[in-house]
């Protein structure tokens, strides 16, 4: 296949990026296999309840919020290739340990350790992309990287479910560990000159940490993008876990619910691939994110209103709206990644990525708890309606802000290319 003829595949002609992408595919597959393995182990094998599931969520989420920004300082200090390879090897060792785990507390400790190590991989990945990809292929590289996440989010749970049914939940950990080891081997072939650490006097640790936060606070475009994405994620995660309850209240069958989830997944793939193939959003990346948030808000609002008024629409209509919502939500990751890369110098990319991830994970950590509480106090449809209206307001207000201050959107592509 001639990769040059397919625009969003062009970065794969770059050997360094193709190695990174291959390693990320395997790592992402391992992460989502881990997801299905742990939950089936807790609920089906050990017969534990909501408390154990909640404890697992906390153990997995806390490192991204509190340790991520700290570890990202070391990501900027250390050679990127070393960070990527060691991260995969350590995660392989940890998941091999999970295979032998019979205690909930030991499992929680290993989940905490695994996610602590994982917080180094994401900023190192972003740092690698900035180092090896020319500006004109940046959006395609970000699109491919996000495609790996969404593709494995669909494939890995299916494969994991089949493996668990045929063997055991614990056996999945062995496969996951092998995937991480193969990923580390692929990443080890990235040339050694990648991101060599400069021999200059490094400032103190806390000064480096605050340097990344200061850059985030003083770069208007980047700060607005991080706030916009973090708040939109919070609103999305308010209702995401309630989809099954919404479908049940709409008297949709299990098969219809499956169609809704599949539609969201397919829409997510279309969204990230579309962001890499169509570059019109580069003229105004913040406006593009805002518009996508606004449209997704309208769709979610319709779902809430439809539930309240008991609209009896065909499953295909609901699935079409779910598909469009998936497109909008996933599309935003491409211009957001583009802003993060173009508005951040190379020596700060790890720390800024770590701080950004921490803010986003706070949203995804707290929102499901609040959403479940609101659904219990009021109704599922109330949560959908409230989140939808919130997304509409967020998208509308941010669009107006960008339009009244176009300089924030940094739409001068030539200037971006010079600074990249």
UniProtKB/TrEMBL annotation:
Gene3D superfamilies: MFS general substrate transporter like domains (1.20.1250.20). The chain crosses the membrane at residues 21-46, 52-71, 92-113, 147-164, 171-190, 222-245, 257-277, 289-309, 316-340, 382-403. One of its GO terms (cellular component) is plasma membrane. This is MFS transporter. It comes from the Bacteria. Pfam families: MFS_1 (PF07690). The lineage of its organism: Bacteria, Bacillati, Bacillota, Bacilli, Bacillales. The keyword Transport applies. Keywords: Cell membrane, Membrane, Transmembrane, Transmembrane helix, Transport. One of its GO terms (molecular function) is transmembrane transporter activity. It is found in: Cell membrane. The keyword Transport applies. It is a multi-pass membrane protein.
């Amino acid at each position: 296949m001639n990769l040059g003829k397919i625009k969003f595949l062009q970065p794969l002609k770059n050997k360094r990026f193709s190695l990174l992408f291959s390693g990320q595919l395997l790592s992402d597959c391992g992460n989502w296999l881990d997801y299905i393995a742990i939950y089936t182990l807790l609920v089906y094998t050990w017969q534990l309840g909501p408390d154990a599931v909640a404890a697992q969520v906390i153990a997995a989420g806390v490192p991204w919020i509190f340790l991520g920004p700290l570890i990202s300082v070391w990501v900027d200090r250390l050679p990127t290739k070393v960070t990527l390879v060691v991260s995969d090897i350590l995660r392989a060792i940890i998941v091999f340990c999970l295979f032998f785990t019979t205690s909930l507390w030991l499992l929680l400790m290993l989940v905490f350790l695994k996610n602590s190590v994982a917080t180094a991989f994401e900023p190192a990945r972003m740092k690698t992309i900035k180092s090896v990809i020319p500006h004109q292929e940046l959006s395609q590289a970000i699109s491919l990287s996000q495609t790996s996440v969404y593709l494995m989010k669909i494939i890995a749970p299916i494969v994991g479910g089949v493996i668990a049914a045929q063997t055991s939940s614990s056996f999945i950990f062995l496969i996951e560990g092998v995937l991480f080891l193969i990923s580390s081997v692929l990443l080890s072939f990235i040339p050694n000159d990648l991101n060599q650490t400069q021999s200059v006097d490094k400032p103190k640790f806390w000064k480096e940490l605050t340097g990344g936060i200061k850059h985030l606070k003083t770069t208007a475009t980047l700060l607005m993008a991080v706030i916009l994405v973090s708040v939109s994620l919070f609103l999305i995660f308010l209702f995401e876990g309630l989809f099954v309850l919404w479908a049940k209240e709409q008297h949709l069958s299990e098969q219809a619910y499956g169609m809704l989830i599949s539609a969201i997944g397919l829409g997510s793939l279309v969204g990230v691939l579309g962001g890499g193939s169509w570059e019109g959003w580069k003229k105004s990346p913040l406006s593009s994110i805002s518009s996508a948030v606004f449209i997704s808000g309208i769709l979610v609002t319709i779902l809430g209103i439809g539930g309240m008024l008991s609209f009896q629409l065909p499953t295909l209509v609901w699935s079409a709206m779910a598909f469009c919502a998936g497109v909008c939500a996933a599309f935003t990751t491409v211009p957001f990644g583009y802003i993060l890369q173009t508005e951040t110098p190379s020596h700060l990319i790890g720390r800024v990525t770590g701080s950004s991830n921490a803010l986003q994970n706070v949203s995804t950590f707290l929102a499901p708890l609040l959403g479940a509480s609101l659904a219990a106090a009021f109704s599922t449809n109330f949560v959908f309606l409230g989140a939808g209206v919130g997304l509409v307001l967020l998208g509308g207000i941010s669009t107006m802000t960008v339009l009244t201050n176009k300089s924030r959107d940094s739409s001068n592509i030539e200037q971006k290319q010079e600074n990249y």
